[in-house]
């Protein structure tokens, strides 16, 4: 099993086409086919089959794809780490961050980071945690900054707490329920959730209503992004749960908090990464900047 064979295999798996993979790798299609066949011969399994839709991975191919991506990304990190030692924190950092982090810690952390690593290439993503976890596992993310429940991490991911945050109920300015002080008064309202049913924010909402001995609201609209939820909560009578930091950062957008008398759930915002994988020096530096901003 050779590195160039893994690169060819991963590219074919991603492109789902031998011809497309050949174009991406600047190789001939016979060369791509031969590389895959040699890898299959070495491993003694069939990794992919061809059909009218293109390439389809077998169960062996699916298992190898994740491992191969990890190997290639770890190799990239090893090369970058040596280059960073030589060239003073040059390299790439890929981070997934929630809206709370993007609108609170991220600007100040980036400002600090760029003073010590001005030539580093930064990539930020905002994806739901299940997808972020997948990117962490295949090595395409260095780390994620998010709030997750412990049972969402699995055995291969670890978390480092950054700070604790609670959730508050937000509504448009002038909302007819703005004077409510008990969750029971909001039970019949329309609510927004930025995750599917069973996801993290939905679990927070469930815990909040369960703690108040109330049934979960019947009218919940699931939004695919923070921007959609923000548009709906500012333009309709919908209610939404935001972290306190996020609520404070968008308070000037025509929104107000409905201050309930009951304490709401508080959870840890954490840095999440693959267990047993060392961050490159430049990625570690960005983690330190995030931690420094929290302390400030």
UniProtKB/TrEMBL annotation:
Keywords, A to Z?
A: Coiled coil, DNA-binding, Transcription, Transcription regulation
Q: Name one GO cellular component term.
A: cytosol
User: Which Gene Ontology molecular function entries are recorded, alphabetically?
Assistant: DNA binding; DNA-binding transcription factor activity
The HTH lysR-type domain covers which part of the protein? 1-58
Membrane-spanning residues where? none
UniProt-listed Pfam families? HTH_1 (PF00126), LysR_substrate (PF03466)
- Coiled-coil ranges per the record? 65-95
- Fetch the InterPro entries from UniProt: HTH-type_LysR_regulators, LysR_HTH_N, LysR_subst-bd, WH-like_DNA-bd_sf, WH_DNA-bd_sf
Q: Which PANTHER family match?
A: HTH-TYPE TRANSCRIPTIONAL REGULATOR YBHD, LYSR FAMILY TRANSCRIPTIONAL REGULATOR
Sequence similarity: Belongs to the LysR transcriptional regulatory family.
Name of the molecule in the record:
LysR family transcriptional regulator
Source organism of the structure: Pseudomonas putida (Arthrobacter siderocapsulatus)
């Amino acid at each position: 099993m050779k590195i160039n064979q893994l690169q060819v295999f991963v590219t074919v798996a991603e492109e789902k086409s031998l011809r497309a993979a050949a174009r991406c790798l600047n190789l001939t299609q016979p060369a791509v086919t031969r590389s895959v066949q040699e890898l299959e011969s070495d491993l003694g399994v069939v990794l992919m089959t061809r059909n009218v839709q293109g390439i389809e991975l077998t169960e062996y191919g699916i298992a190898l794809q994740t491992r191969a991506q990890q190997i290639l990304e770890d190799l990239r990190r090893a090369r970058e780490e040596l280059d960073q030692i030589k060239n003073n924190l040059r390299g790439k950092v890929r981070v997934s961050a929630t809206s709370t982090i993007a609108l609170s810690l991220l600007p100040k952390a980036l400002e600090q980071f760029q003073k010590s690593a001005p030539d580093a290439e930064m990539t930020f993503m905002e994806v739901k945690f299940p997808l972020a976890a997948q990117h962490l596992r295949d090595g395409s993310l260095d780390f994620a900054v998010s709030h997750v429940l412990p049972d969402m991490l699995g055995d291969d991911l670890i978390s480092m707490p950054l700070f604790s945050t609670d959730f508050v109920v937000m509504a448009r300015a002038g909302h007819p329920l703005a004077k409510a002080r008990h969750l029971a008064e909001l039970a019949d309202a329309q609510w927004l959730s930025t995750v599917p049913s069973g996801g993290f924010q939905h679990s927070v909402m469930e815990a909040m209503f369960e703690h108040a001995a109330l049934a979960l609201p019947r009218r919940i609209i699931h939004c695919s992004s923070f921007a959609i939820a923000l548009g709906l909560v500012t333009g309709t009578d919908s209610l939404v749960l935001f972290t306190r930091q996020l609520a404070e950062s968008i308070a000037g957008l025509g929104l107000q908090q409905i201050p309930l008398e009951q304490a709401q759930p508080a959870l840890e915002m954490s840095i999440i990464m693959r267990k047993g994988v060392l961050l490159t020096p430049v990625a570690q530096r960005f983690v330190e900047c995030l931690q420094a901003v929290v302390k400030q």
